[in-house]
Amino acid sequence: MINCARLSERYSIIDIMEQRSKNLIKNGITLFVVFFFTWVMYKNLGDFETLFETISNAHPLFFILTVGLGISNFYMYSWIAQSSYRIISEGTKYPKIFLNTIVYHFLSVSNPLGAAGSSAYLVKYLVDRGLSHIKAVFGVLITNLSTNLAFIFILIYTLYNLNLADKLERYQWYASFIALALNLGILAIIVLFVALPRFSGKIAKWVTGVINKVTRKIIKKDSISERTLDDYIQEARSLSARFDLSIYKFIKSLPISLCYHGVNMLILYLSFQTFAVPVEVTQIVTLYGLITLFTIVAPTPQGVGVVEGLAHTVAISVGVSSSGALLAILMFRLAVIWFPAIIGLFIFRHKDSALSNSKEGVPVGSV
Questions:
Q1: Cβ–Cβ < 8 Å for 260, 150
Q2: Collapsing DSSP states into helix, strand and coil, what is residue 279?
Q3: d(Cα 168, Cα 188) in Å, to the nearest integer?
Q4: What is the C-alpha separation between 105 and 343, in angstroms, rounded?
Q5: Are 157 and 264 in contact (CB under 8 A)?
Q6: Contact 364, 358 (CB under 8 A)
Q7: Do residues 259 and 76 lie in contact, with contact meaning Cβ atoms separated by under 8 Å?
Q8: What is d(CA 98, CA 22) in angstroms, rounded to the nearest whole number?
Q9: Comparing 231 with 310, which gets the higher pLDDT?
């Protein structure tokens, strides 16, 4: 009995060490990427005297306005998310959706998988509201599709503008292709699931058969039950019955998504105004297009390090001063990434401590 306990403890220690080594590798890769692009910004900067002078001329009112808009724009994102969830389940209520959106953003910055990893948090939130796992997943997918499709229009203008100025690089084409492929993949999954439930049901049966065949050899049982598969087909048919109405509601959400990106472009413009850096509207749209593009396709969470380095390089190529571009881009990233992430951290910790207290039978606020 003692030997079994020791053996179990040894295996748990090995599992912990393996997990830590994986996290160490992921964090090491992220640090390397951030360091590389920090070095790129350093090499592009050159004139540090201009940098310090630009910082000293910063306008505090524009700084406050930029940060305030960056945080408040999450209200618009939560509105888009709620509209997407109501396409899937119209009668469901979504309390505290703004706070959960902020937490989702914090998790997308703090975990190695970025937005893909933090989506699990939103799926859990929707399941707690009474949605099935399938509906919850598709609610999150539709939210991402809405914001990304609206962004495609901005990206097309960005690429067109860079091409006219003969500043379009091959890596920008590759990144655009990846972003487009991701959106087409999401769209294909939704159409397959909703518009063609019988066809997707047959594919689901085939995939389930393959998976179960493999798992029977490894764990001696099926990993996906017939009941789960039947639930999938029923969900597909129920959503398919409202497909026309769902498409109409989705199209109605696209202008809101465009407004969301419009506010982000305003935040970028105010970031330049904070440091009194002259910039044209076309330059703002071009920079925002590339910042958002590399946020989507970068290997680091929310493009940390990658976006700053590449956006700074592009800003210089389109005629923005080096020191001014660096400060404005960092200011923009603070407003839309880091300040909201800090707020999300505090909300997440509060929710976590409240959940622990409730499990222990301690009333929240009594400690």
A1: yes
A2: coil
A3: 29
A4: 10
A5: no
A6: yes
A7: yes
A8: 33
A9: 310
When computed from its CA atoms, the radius of gyration of the chain, rounded to whole angstroms, is: 24
> How many other C-beta atoms lie within 10 A of the C-beta of residue 201?
18
Write out pLDDT tens, residues 97-118.
899 999 999 888 887 777 777 8
Cα separation, 87 vs 135, whole angstroms: 10
Two structure tokens written together for 299: 């290997």
Which DSSP state fits 298? -
List pLDDT tens digits, range 200-240.
566 666 766 776 777 676 666 666 666 666 666 676 666 66
pLDDT at residue 265, rounded to an integer? 95
pLDDT class of 134 with cuts at 50, 70, 90: confident
Question: How many CA atoms lie within 13 Å of 183's alpha carbon, on the beta-carbon side?
Answer: 21
Interacting residues of 162 by C-beta distance below 8 A, sequence separation 6+: 168, 172, 286, 318
For residues 87 and 243, give the distance between their C-alpha atoms in angstroms, rounded to a whole number: 10
| Selection from 340, 347, 279 nearest residue 314 by Cα | 279
Helix boundaries (H) for the chain: 2-45, 48-56, 60-88, 97-110, 115-128, 133-164, 170-194, 197-219, 226-240, 243-274, 281-297, 306-317, 322-333, 339-360
340 touches 74 (CB < 8 A): yes
Cβ density class 303-333: b for 16+ within 10 Å, e for less: bbbbbbbbbbbbbbbbebbbbbbbbbbbbbb
